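Quick question, first post here. What does this chain look like in 3D?
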Amino acid sequence: MPIDALVTFIIATVVLSLAPGPDNIFVLAQSALYGKKTGVLVTLGLSTGLLVHTTAVALGVAVVFQTSVLAFTLLKAVGAIYLLYLAWQAFRTAASAIDAPAPRARSNWALYRRGIIMNITNPKVSIFFLAFLPQFASPAQGALAPQIFILGGVFLVVSLLIFCAIAVLAGTLGRWLNQSPQAQIYLNRVAGVVFVGLALKLVTTTADASPAW
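> Answer (accepted):
Ran it through. Tokens below.
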């Protein structure tokens, strides 16, 4: 895999992991309420769920590409539209209070399991992975499935590190985001720009006669 593509992928992953969203806000809130260990356990569960989405996308995209180049191109077009939709949501999202209701304390296994269930039952994660991962893979570099597994692994490691950092710094981050609403808006706007860039990358590739994604 070209190093420039991998660097671009890592940068995009970092930005999207930092942008306020249901998962990292949940980790932040749980850590602030119950301690760093709680946030880390939930993060491990969320990361485990990513393995399921990565596997589904890797095998699914490989089958689609082998079946029909037209279907593969249509899949890319749909992915670009979805990324633009995510960008629109990011640009219009306003700042909100970073808090959560205080549920009862849970066991370590329950926290880990909750993270897994939250992730694998969220269809938006599958759709996002379907639009995000394959555009950094190319048939010219070899089989698609192994490339997507590698990208999924890199995404998992980067998001795991960032979410664990969020868990450790939950108190400080929570106060900062609550006291600086513009920070939330800024992070969302940056994520929106990344989504637009990814969508344009997909559209540009679709317009190419090459079947590579």
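The first helix runs from residue 3 to 18.
The radius of gyration is 18 Å.
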